[in-house]
Amino acid sequence: MLKIGILVYDGVEELDFVGPWESMAYVNKIVEKAVKMYSIGTKKEIKAYNGLKITADETIYSAPQMDILVIPGGRGRKTEMKNEETLRFIRHQYLGLKYLLSVCTGAFLIAATGLLDGRSATTHKYAIQELMTYPRIKVVEKRIVKSENIITAAGITAGIDLGLYMIDTIFGRDIALKISEHLEYQSKELEEKSF
């Protein structure tokens, strides 16, 4: 069973974490006990950007080693990308991860760890210019960008595509297409096999 963690913090964009959560967790409805999902908070009680309150399953201090870690974006990322404890958690988890993922401006948290140095990455279209200020990152304006085991996704709804991308990668295209159909979400990238 794969352990998938999604980082949550004050000011996180709701759909940035719920989109990949739903699209990856849905695999359990098709493949029994395929994944175990964890919300991992910078603290136990989190208030997302639009007011959604979350009680995290684990915190960055108690979380077990994940197989996949998702870093969502949101306005709160401006604080978290300067929070050394959050960055230390990402770096420490990375040592044992199969994949490190970001949605939207979550790419900036990974950039702040230095893990994107020498790699390609993307982010929300309105934050592309800001990401270009990191001279060691090759910024690509695509919906999903894979650079070895770090995969970044563009803005907000791209998190759903990112989740489907991971399902396609791990469980195969047939299962990813079934999930897309059940979610009634049309992923152009999945349908065109452009992942």
> Fraction of residues in helices?
25-40%
Distance between the termini: 24 Å
Q: Point out poorly predicted stretches.
A: none
Largest sheet: 7 strands, mixed
Number of strands: 11
User: Strand order across the biggest sheet?
Assistant: 5-2-1-6-7-11-10
Shape, per Cα inertia axes: globular
CA-based gyration radius:
15 Å
Output mean pLDDT: 96
Report the sheet-strand fraction.
15-25%
Order of helices and strands: EHEEEEEHHEHEHEEEHHH
The assigned structural class equals alpha/beta
Put simply, the count of helices is 8
Question: What is this structure's SSE topology?
Answer:
Layout: E1 2-8, H1 14-25, E2 35-41, E3 45-47, E4 53-55, E5 58-59, E6 68-71, H2 77-80, H3 84-94, E7 99-103, H4 107-113, E8 120-121, H5 128-131, E9 138-139, E10 144-147, E11 150-153, H6 158-171, H7 173-183, H8 188-191
Parallel strand pairs: 1-2, 1-6, 2-5, 6-7, 7-11, 8-9
Antiparallel strand pairs: 3-4, 10-11
Helix pairs in contact: 1-6, 3-4, 6-7
